[in-house]
Model the fold of this input.
Amino acid sequence: MNNSTLPAPPPSSAHPARVYNAWLGGKDNYPVDQEAAELAARANPTIVPSVQANRAFLGRAVRHLAAAGIRQFLDIGTGIPAAENTHEVAQRAAPDSRVVYVDNDPIVLTHARALLVSGPEGQTDYVEADARDVDTILDSAARTLDLDQPVGLMLVAILQYIKDAEDPWDVTARLLNRLAPGSHLVLSHPAADVTAPEVAESMRIYNQRAASHASATPRTHHEVQRFCDGLEILEPGVVTLTRWRPGPSDTPNDTLPMWCAVARKP
Done:
């Protein structure tokens, strides 16, 4: 595997963005990430199709928001760029869309600045910040986004890295609190109550190999729905990935252990 774009020496623990990149078949990961990705996927064979379905859900959600008139997106937990990134989907539908990407890994942001290039009518920006650091994220995003106008808040496969003790529900609420009415939350999250034994074992394997701050927590349908408290949850509600407004050729697969939803701030 060619990792020439990554700095040396290799890290001693896996990082979520690089493990996700390995699951997507990318090259921007280290042996420790490849090991975590392979062992977790062996314990839970739905991981790789879930990652692919999660990317497809992101695309459908962004297209829906663009069709509804949203022209600003705040994507927290960007990950290493892959196909069909938020700004690509948004600007294909609405070329004047503006997107701010946020991640806490400088490697991710190095890739983002190089690869996530806006079209001429739109704009992209990048913020290095932890998802828990709400004020830094929003103050920095305000350089590019008008927070007095609706924003699509993308929390796609990121909240599992915020422990219960750190109150990810409060983090989400504080992010939404500063966004204008008409903003939307786009959310996906590993499920603790779909193929539960396999999910638990794959998370255990991943957490053993990840840095303590990057350990992951799957959550139940009820716990995921709490992220939408005070919001208007769009149909079909909090559902598995392939159930959220699938296209005509999409095949529903309820064994994929991730919940997702799109909800509007009234």
